[in-house]
User: What shape does this take?
Amino acid sequence: MKAFTTNTNQLKRNLPLLGVASLALLSSCNSKQANVEKPLNIVYIMTDDHTQQMMSCYDTRFMETPNLDRIANDGVRFTNSFVANSLSGPSRACMLTGKHSNANKFFDNTTCVFDTAQQTYPKLLQQAGYQTALIGKWHLESIPSGFDYWEIVPGQGDYYNPTFIQQNLERVDKDGYITNLITDEAIDWMSNKRDPEKPFCILIHHKATHRNWMADTTHLALYEDMTFPMPENFYDSYEGRVAAASQEMSISKDMDLVYDLKMLYPNSNTTLTPYYKSFIGRMNKEQRAAWDKHYDPIIKEFDKAKLKGKELDNWKYQRYMRDYMKTLKSLDENVGRVLDYLEENNMLDNTLVVYTSDQGFYMGEHGWFDKRFMYEESMRTPLVMRLPKGYNKRGEINQMVQNIDYAPTFLELAGVEVPQDIHGVSLLPLLKGEEPKEWREGLYYHFYEYPAEHMVKRHFGVRTDQYKLIHFYDDVDVWELYDLKSDQSEMNNIYGKKGYEAVTADLKEKLTNLQVQYNDSIRHRFN
Assistant: This one.
């Protein structure tokens, strides 16, 4: 096995685990992008809780996403794209700063406020002469900074007739469906509110496909004739996985019949019913009529059926899948609108278009919805890019990348010096079609939000090409180890089993080195 030093300065210089391609790549942080007539624009589109399983250029089992696939078909698709902390606010902070949560200090959604005085890539682009804009979901509990223009939704935002907060801090209610409205505002800014002589970077942040998956009325009837096979591990027993057994994100036990599945009938009140009533209460008369026309027959049929046990589980799973897909359908259509706008205005050759999500999501795997765990479905995230002229790479990029890499990538693309304190690595060599001899040997992950909604234990870990080592800590002290080549579903915890001693020791050394490199003060115990 390769030996790894724990000398902090040497780690910073050599980056042996997070790994840049070479010393040449390190020096490229200060270089300008060659062969470009003028600075490149950046259109960054990010959704919430969209998972690779539900994007047809990754997985064709469920639905077609033709406009998202357009980006991949005309550019590149990252097959090993991951987040550093699978939770909305922390993931966004990692993306903006290029740093792990311990450095940007936004650890969770319940206790943190993002310090907007800190360094972010929009600020650095702005200082370099870029126009910057943010439209949609912010979810960092502070006023955006580093943007020439911004318009955000408070908190999670509402699917119907949402409130927007504008730069003057005025709250404005807008009529319509949130995915359409965010796209309207983004296109309006690109068309009418920027200086066409200057390069720009716009962040289009959608609410979709966040819980509770309320579709546009124009899409309510979609997918109702489809039936989906439940995942093979839907009835996971969680044997050998203490943390997995104690979570509260089960479709069977925790998915709410009213809030999540819209079954609002007499005597159906749940603890989340008031929230659902507030959501549908935002609808206008026409929207509510279309909503009730669709759901009332389903409610009556469900009330009559009196389903229990596995029949009820399957019914809940089918409704979840359909509602999720309907919200995603609107999202895909609106991504198409942005692509069409760029094409019609001859901007594609000079624009990097990025699509991703703030993390992955469970579509019934392990019996779950939501995210948070370091397991593959939630740590992975879709990432596709349509490249500007001069970048000839097409097809798959298989190297492991992480959302802390977006900031240095955008900065280098714009010819802006990448600060040395950024944790991420520029992906430009990969976009140029280069095959670096060295790349990441391990990804670091750390989840902090416990106790909180869904009750996923705090944990950190390292992921390599073949293995994943996770340490759950705080009120527990347990380890999990998976061979991702033979156990893709992460069902068999092999930590402590005979024959894996050397692998475990090597992964713990990698984990320690990553924690030193990123100055994460929480250290694990070698029990």
